[in-house]
Amino acid sequence: MTPQLRGREKELERLTAVLDLVAAGEGQALVLRGPAGIGKTTLVAHVAGEARGRGWRVLRAAGVQAEVNLPYGGLERLLRPMVTASRRRSIDEMLLDGETDEADLRPYRVALAVLERLDDGEARPTLMMVDDAQWLDEATWQVLSYVGRRLGDDAFLLLMSMRDGEETTRRLTGSGLPETPVGPVSDEVAREIVAAVAPGLPTVLVLRVVEEAGGNPLGLHELATAAASAGERALPSGLSLPQRLDDTFSAAIADLPAPSRHVLRVAALHDTDDAEEILGAAGLTAAAVRPAIDARLAELGDTALRLRHPLIRSAVVRSIPAADRRAIHAALALAVRDEDRRTWHLAAAVTGRDEPLGDAMADLAFRLRQRGASHTALSAWERAAELTADSGRRAYRLVKAIDCGYDSGDLAAINRLAPLVDESRLTPHEMLAIVARRNAVDGYGEMGDAQLLTFIRTAEQWLAAGDVDGAFDLINMVVFRLYFSHLAPGTRQAALVFVEHSGRGLDDPHVLAFVGLTAPLDNGRAVLEALPHQLTQPIDTQFQMILGATSLAVGSLSLARQFLGTAAARCRTQQRVGLLAQTLVTQAWASAFGHDAYAAGGAAAEAVRLGDETGWPHWTAAARMAQGMVAALRGEDAIATQVADGAEKALLGAGLHGMLCLVQLIRGTSALAAGNATAAFDHLSRALDPADMAYHPTIRFWAVGTLAEAAVMAGRTGELAPMLDQLDAEEKLCGSPALAAGLVYARAAVRLEHSVDDYSPEETATALAAHPFDKARADHAYGVRLRRDRQYGKARPYLRSAITIFEALGAEAWAARSRRELRAAGETVRPAGNARDSLSPQELQIATLAAQGLTNKEIGRQLFLSPRTVGTHLYRLFPKLGITARAELAAALSPH
Known about the structure:
- By secondary structure, this protein is mainly alpha-helical.
- Helices cover 66% and strands 4% of the residues.
- Among the domains are: 3-181, Rossmann fold (3-Layer(aba) Sandwich), CATH 3.40.50.300; 187-238, no CATH class; 443-538, no CATH class; 539-634; 838-893, Arc Repressor Mutant, subunit A (Orthogonal Bundle).
- It contains 47 helices and seven strands.
- The longest helix has 18 residues, at 391-408.
């Protein structure tokens, strides 16, 4: 074992095991995390050597603190060895053959291209290693963390080292990347390191170095070297290790000749390690670097000039006076070849206001946001604001920075920037945009009537000024809040008056969504008539999703599926992963309302994964609630109860009472599946009671069928009757297909409890054609009534039909009940089981797409996976389905 790896047996054992797993075809990602100087870089270098020795392809890069504002800079360095044309430098050239524009360079789009590029037919495993990943630019970090979560079935290893600190914690929290802490070495190993670095050092100094270094290998090395040359005076007490190392490096830097110090300063402030640019900006030759190399402070290669350790860079930067720092940035601006990097250096070189440079930074910020680099764009907008003299334009640019904070889910940045905005120079629209952004990042808690009225009245002012588009842009920021909030009648009326004053009708998708989500009871029929026309119109992807939600609000499953299906497909094509997560949540609930456990489970599982990755916890929470409905339909009461209880606690804490109706829907469905009809009726009755906190004007319609089923099973049809009468009147008003279907089943179930006289199964089937679960419930109820009347021959076909539909939807609890009734009707019932139940939600997605004829690459692009991962999933799921070929998938996935 090399001296640098003393005391690292545990870490080396873990890393060797990871290498073995990857060599066996199980992709891995791992983050080595620890304080500065603890030995992470040494371990990473050791793994690289091991990988090369095994014949692996090795890609290597390091995060550079001065480069955090250069989107994809780290990724370009990492992937450059894979590109044959060495002159290709930009990400779109490397990964997308230059056939794209900046708007397509979103991190998820790039990440998918990375996965495809890695899966290039290379037979040997690949190691991607990144040192100091806490200093990667945000876009590169997003790409690599995304890739790292998708290496499960590929012979790739992503190995990163990160220094402990706030930025590392921020990045790793919720990233899904496994970590291995790298801690201090033992005192025994520490003494061995000191002896190797400074042989013959007096025992008293050895003990002092070991005590001061605290098991930090770099500290041991540097302090031992300092003690050997300067004696005990080199070891001041009472300082933290980073400060002691900083003092050590600062002293070494101070001993350098002035030209060497200058070169180190330029290198420390530059955003790349390009030796030509660094020496050009310094106005010196490579000879000036030699003293720094001899002092082990820098390394010089053919094209790169690097400082040997990040702490050296920190010590150098802290030693540069402010005026000198600005002068260096000005020199670098003249030396660099890239226009965007030149703009960054110029912005760092000036003090005070500079309108032309502020404009250049604003242009750069706009392009950065288009590329999906919202974190870097935020910094650019903020710097543009600092350079801007006009207070109105400065306020506007700070608002744009806040928008970028919204994009990246950075509430801290929003809260930091908002007080800097001169509100007197903002338009009302811009001021309210800040409020909406802060609330959206903080979570979708309810907005009070007063706050919502402020939005509506401000939008009215924009209407008066003639800016109808601006008015709707503002009001649509809160349209979902309006749907999920318990509004006072005056607030809802003000919203409808705003629409009336706009002069636009339901042929406008913005008006259609706003009216449908704000007043679905009063305007449901008109919205239902207008929605189909929008299916053929060129609508923005986000509004396709919103119209899907609108369709659910007015009770149309068929329209919701069409809008949401189109929106999801566009999101996948456009790589709009954040919007896809929102669309999948809405899709999951559309399927849950339709009691389709398979479809809801697949959409919800993907929504949870993408919601976590894109940093929107409230969307993830809504997706997990949909998973609770799936568990309820499958009869998994413990899971459903846990989800409902957790959701209720979170919603009450956020003040979001409008979604409590969903909690009661989960509880009622789960209780009924478990056979506790009384509890089910009690849970669902709350959702229909206007005086109850869990009431919602239209979500309750999706509970009517289950409420009626529970009432019949619990013998509480007397309590149900007045509810149905009230709901009949509401259905005549709003025309909700969901309510109409629930009422058809409810009336049938109550009637069949007493007699089969005058009951027409054909009429019921026709009325419930778009609601297969309710149709199956009606078939079950009719079959049960016939069996009880000892008409076994007539009962069996209806019970078989119910079983078929329930099993096709994955509603196992209901299928089991129908199987018991069919058995009681005298028919031998085949064992329960559906081949799809053996698949995970992701496997089912892959199998379904493959059954439709998509290739592995096409499936990978749909689900943001590498083609090799798709192939591995198919290889594993074929035996589960009892098939051996792709052509057999469609039959295997059918209900029987």
